[in-house]
Amino acid sequence: MGKITVQVAVNAPLEKVWDKLNNPKDIEEWNQASPDWHCLNASNSLEVGGKLKSTMAAKDGSFSFDFEGIYDEIIPQKFIKYHLEDGRTVEISFEEKDNQILVTETFDAEDQNSEEMQKEGWQAILNNFKNYTETN
Fold it and tell me: Buried b vs exposed e over 91-117: b needs ≥16 C-beta within 10 Å?
């Protein structure tokens, strides 16, 4: 499987974008791909070797799963890299451009869902992040 990239431009200062992406209470608010899902809880130890963890669940209680990453590299307000339990990596970059913050996520595709479906899901979550950050 290849790498998938999703991106969004956020109308907010870099400090706010960084904070909203990494603060567990904020993560719980924006971390879902569709309105019938929610993030039950999140924790984040933003340091090399630290863990990012969240529980995603269908609102009707029919399904839930844990998402967990371990940080490999952190450059404050610029770059984050972590790996998942299955060894796949995720990289997130932050770039100031035209009075916006361009947030780019690149991740290794998994082999259980189509790349198109994975891209749509991650893009939907990133869109939720943008909307939440711009209005909170």
Answer: bbebeeeeebbebbbbbbbeeeeeeee
Asked if residues 26 and 41 have their Cβ atoms less than 8 Å apart, the reply is: no
CA separation (Å) from 72 to 41, 48, 92, 129? Answer: 22, 5, 12, 23
Quote the domain boundaries for residue 72.
Answer: 3-135
Q: Whole-model pTM?
A: 0.95
Mean pLDDT of 120-127: 97
Is the pLDDT at 1 greater than 90, yes or no? no
pLDDT single digits (tens) 48-88: 999 999 999 999 999 999 999 999 999 999 999 999 999 99
Longest dimension (CA), the chain: 43
Nearest-angstrom CA–CA distance, 71 and 32: 21
Count of residues making up the chain:
136
Pairing between β-strand 64-75 and β-strand 89-97 as defined by DSSP bridges: unpaired
- State the CATH number of the domain containing residue 119: 3.30.530.20
